[in-house]
Here is the input.
Amino acid sequence: MNSGSRAKLNTKNNIIPDLMAGTIFKSERYRQKVESVSADILRNVSLNRGFLLWMGFLTAVLLACLYAYTIQLREGLGVTGLRDITSWGVYIANFVFFVATSLVGMLISCVLGLSGAKWVKPIARIAEIIAVAFAAVAGLVIISDMGRPDRLPYVFLFGRFQSPILWDVTVVTTYFFVSLLLWFLPMIPDLAIAKDRLPGRPAFLVRAYEILSVKWVDHEKQFEILHKAMRILLILIIPLAFAIHTVTSWLFAVTPRPGWDSTIFGPYFISGAFVSGTAAVVIAMYFFRVSYKLEKYITDFHFDRIGRVLILVSVLYFYFNLNEFLVPGYKLKTSDAIHLRELFAGHHAFLFWGVQLLGLVIPAILLLFRKIRKPLPMLVISVVVLAAAWLKRYIIVVPPQAHPYLPAQNYPVEWIVYKPTLIEIAVSVAAIVLVLMIITILSKLFPVLPIQEIAEEEALAKNESV
Amino acid sequence: MRKLIPALTAILLLGTRLSAQDWTVPDDRKGRLSTFAFDDETRKTGQKLYTANCKSCHGIPGEDNWLRLVPPPGDPASEKFQKNSDGEMFYKVVTGRGQMPSFRTVLSANEIWALISYLRSYNQGYVQQVMQLITSSAYPDAEIRIALAWNSADSTVDISATAVSEKSSVAVTDAEMQLMVQRRFGHLAVDEPRNTDSRGFVRFRMPAGLPGDTAGNVLVMARFTDEETFGSAGKDTILRAGMPSFNESLVAPRAMWNTARKAPVWIILTYLGGVLIAWGFIMLVLLKLRDIFIIGENSTLNNK
Amino acid sequence: MSEKKKKPAEEKNLDEILDTSRRDFLKKVGLVGSAALTGAAALYSGYRFEKEKHSGATIKVLTEDNRLVEIPVEQVKDYKPGLKVYQTRGREGIEGKRWVMVIDLSKCRNARKCVEACQDAHHLRPYEYHINTLVMQESKNTPRYFMPKPCQHCDNPPCVSVCPVDATFKRQDGIVLIDNERCIGCRFCMSACPYSARMFHWQEPLAVEGDKERVYDIELNVPHKKGTISKCLFSADRLREGIMPYCVSACPNGVFYFGDENEDAVTNGTTKETVRLSELLEQNGAYRLLPELGTKPRVYYLPPKNRIFEFREPGETEYKEQHNT
Here is the structure.
């Protein structure tokens, strides 16, 4: 096979294993590369003390937070700060944030992957891990907001096609499942490679690798089928991802409330999701790079590239923000005016401007400088962006409820002004802890980077240069 | 104009600040009696009527929780109240005063008596006297007969009133009558009150577009406005005097707000189609995973 | 075709294996699938049967006040209806009716008797509202006035549109009800209601102990359940008995009219005067709340003009003043 046709093939399928390149897999160079790459990546696959301590810590926090949830189960949602006027609060904000962040799996794997950006290969799996973790927990978050969680099956028994909630439940489930497959399928060759290279690891782990590698033998036909399957998934996940967050935005946009009653809520949410998801990926990249000692594979180049992605999605999100706030702000219809005044100069002004400037404008400007697009500054920026992304969801959910069309009167004052309680915060923290646990398990017990793809890439690079 | 009169009267009456003492009942009305004996049945009916019509101002009898209005409504179980004769109570309910409305078109005579029978249950010492004969003070010993006829041509209702006794039959002349139509929660007055002519006839005009049932039937009620003179004499008849109404159920159309079964077809199809397509592709991918497994198994066997 | 010819023998073999195994697999999946479908269908038909056996025949009976009415057969057997009867008839509503409420703002003095009667009937706390009276003022130069605000029972109810489980629904007589046996407590309906007409049971309902033995009446929404929604029901239980809603008959100031749009008549809850609905609305310049939202409420308001009293700050209403002296 000559290098010209290889290059052609490469542009066609990027993060998909190079299938027709059967010859490369038989080359000695490839075998060597597999040995070296797998040694680097599989080094981290272990139930070491650090892992156990970290998981133990997370479990302890989770249990404490779950205790808070049992109080809520017993006493009712009255233990939260929610009341008749502001009836959706931190839980729903958390839910929107989770759904948003999980969207990055689609962005990195598909939009960038299918468009031929080679550099996403090593971080595609990290993006999928984040997608799986956040999508899985998003469903649980919504249950914590239900007054009658025992009646969850009713959604499936009596589901109304007209309600965005039925669509949301359906789409989140489907998206989670497809994200799981998108994480798992490209990992099958890695599992086959790894199953014989895990000396000293617990037997159950090796056994799990053996089962999950579904008898992978590097057969040409297997590569071909895997390729087809991946293509189906990569295309399927795009409408799904758009659906998951558009439907989530409809939870608000289908109501006649000023502040939610917006026609651009779908794209506004999706562009916002790209920002928070990309920030989450940067944080994960930094963490894996440092603590798994993968500097060789997650390089400054990758940070530079994802930094550019973050600029791009920030500009996009800024554009939708401009539309979302400027257009009603220009007309100042009575109900919109009250809401916007609260955001621009009222009770929520500090939060609003803080989030818009620190979480969107300033990071985008800073990232324009090449020197900022280095791992550590990127980490700091991403942490701020992610925190701001959460607060932005709070701004989207809470303030529009505080000023309904008709005045809220004859209520105790604490029924009108929403303040999250400790229990509410604890239950929300539980969800975040759960996400961290899933990310830890998926990244610690399985190869966090694609061994086979990296080895192939490196072998080919040598081949071509020769 | 007709709406203004009760309102103006209310203002005027309020202005004069009538006190409870000077609500006097004409002497000829004081002695009126119920035509039936009070029993548990009438008391039960009366209690229902009381709850629906009187409780909002007078409160629960005996609890002294009446509303503080001017003049004060007072507690019907109180001695002051029970001092009234049956006739006095009847008169006051019929006429009303100040903020107390007239129940003339709201309650029938029998209903007011049932109400009184309920109120008397709070009076231990009360002994009822029953009027033996239904008579009108204007036509003693005669039974008042009323006939209604519907003229669809000019949308009018003709009424003739006759006082029939054993000896003779005479027209009830120059008596004011009111025509009413029964509605769910009350009686809707139709046309103005009018007087019978020398032959005992009176003609009422039915308003245009008054809805009846699907056939256009309405329950029409003719009453003498001077109930104290004519007693409960009146006539209830079903006439085809209304507009036939064919209003379909409010939940008939398929709509976003209707139940799942009545969802718009396109949304059901989109949902089911979407789910089917997405999970169909997921199944396809799982099948491919299976293929990978089989190839692997096969080639391991071959190698061995 | 040429590609196929080139394929080595081993691969042909593989294709066959894959084909047969795929067929086998699909067969198995098909079997399991059709078994599941049959099971589901059986379950569903059973469920339908259960649901429908209580809603079939009706019977004509004569009521105490000599009206011929048609009622479901099972009501004849059950003097005290069970849960299923309550649910079935409560979800169907009363045939041929279109309930409508008219609120005359020129008469409201904020006596709040409607609120009290409602909370009393529905076992609510003083700050849990099915109906609330608000102090309204559109702008600085427009008058202040009191406005009783029940659920508007919209004909295009945004709250019902968003409910995921048919827990809140519109009946044929126009009433929007809540089934707290079904409600999952997601509060989407509260978010969607532009009139803030809905309340949620954030804690154990007020009369939870006393109502323990009571059969749940969907038309009264009592007993309440923690973690579910409640709201104004137009006193559907009273309407069934031919009595006007609790708030309507409790008003001392003649603010409320209630009736059937199909009869074109409403009756004042205080004076009991019955008037033509169309005339009342036309002669008084009636309007509905937030008409621009397209919710089509079943509650009409008459503007607060020609008031025979002065507006007073809440808490100093005539009623309370007199009560104190």
